[in-house]
Amino acid sequence: MNIITTVYQLLWGDLIYIPLPGGQNMGLSLLVLILIPAGIFFTIRTRFLPLRLFPEMLRVTAEKRSQENGHAISGLQALIVSTATRVGMGNLVGVVAAISAGGAGAVFWMWITALIGSSTAFTEATLAQLHKEKDPLYGGYRGGPAYYIHDFIQNKKKTPKGRSVIAILFAISGLICWCGISQVISNSVSSSFQNAFQIPPLYSTIVLTILAAVIVLRKNATVKVLDVLVPIMASCYFIITLFIIVKNATLLPSVFGQIFEEAFGIRQMVSGGFGAVLMNGVKRGLFSNEAGSGSAPCAAAAAGTNHPVKAGLLQALGVFIDTIIICSCTAMIMLLAPREMMESLSGMELLQTAMQYHLGKFGMIFIAATLWLFSFSTFIGILFYARSNVAYLFGDNWLSQTLYKILALIMLFIGGLAAYTFVWDLGDIGIGLMTIFNMLILIPQSNEALKALREYETMMHQKKSDSQQ
Description:
By secondary structure, the chain is mainly α. It has helices spanning about 1-10, 30-45, 50, 55-60, 75-85, 90-100, 105-130, 145-155, 165-195, 200-215, 220-245, 250-265, 265-270, 275-290, 295-300, 310-335, 340, 345-360, 360-395, 400-415, 420-469, and strands at about 15-20, 25-30, 135, 140. About 80% of the residues lie in helices and about 5% in strands.
């Protein structure tokens, strides 16, 4: 326990402090110190790709699937899988926590973090495509950080053989993280259903576990289910939020004024609250969109695209969908509710109260159902990610694949009945270590992705000039 606590504090605790006016300090964790500079580095190296190539991201999303890819999933399906795992409790509970601790200004810094994170997501997804390999078990392709880390290390060795230690550590960290997340998912679902419908945790957990088992223990049901589930859940949440925004349209100027005023406000700066505003927005943005953690590249590698950059552009768009759209929806639901109603509340209770204010009893039910859908799709998505890591560690066999799925299902069931903070901390440590091992190689290996981007842009310009002739 002491070792776990020490590692957790090293990764997530404040490592250094920056003095601010008013005698306060702004704490920076190791992961923030890694991800923000890396995101800025990639944003500059890609020449502000999220802004420059946003129209191209949308165009690639609308592209028809090539028939040459056989059993491989399409780039859009890879985006849906990664969106399933990105769009989860972080978009609900995480945003609530950020605004509770840092005020409305935290939303602005979440937006900035998403723009920076998009370039990181592009780089890791493009590398995953460049180093993908055939999947003999599930068909199509597989890959991710474990594979591009392996190739990078092997290329540096004079006598390449065996597996890479860093790649092994990344794969193990991922499997630990996803088991921890399984418990958090089921606990959040059972708690929300108990609050909204007075359903005992045992019953909701049994149903959740059986449904998940039916899907994940079948060979290729995961992507088919997410193809239906993710667009429906994201669209419903967006439409409901849009209705709330239209209903409260007269309050929008004051809400945006509050966001920008508290993001840069003199009052927050002088009182020392600026650090809380900035860091809560940055941390929640990073943790919600997962850019740099190495999770989404596991989906990006499985896509059968005719150019690796297309997979990168789609994953960059995924960060935009997660943070700019879905997280902003949660923020608007909260900020459009009366401030005095929210003051003494925190966590899911705060969001449920805000929804009840906007939509009455239906609001409470809608949030419970939304959390269930977000959490369920996250669980299915992380087990899709786990495929490539399990294969890297244990080779191509159904036994190891099935045993890991059963372990995750057991953790899902246990988590619904009780909260084990030890396992949850282990999950947080897993994603923290994944990020460190991924970023160790991602920065020196990024030239490959940048070279592919230059080639792709040359092709784009050539096609444009040919069409104009």
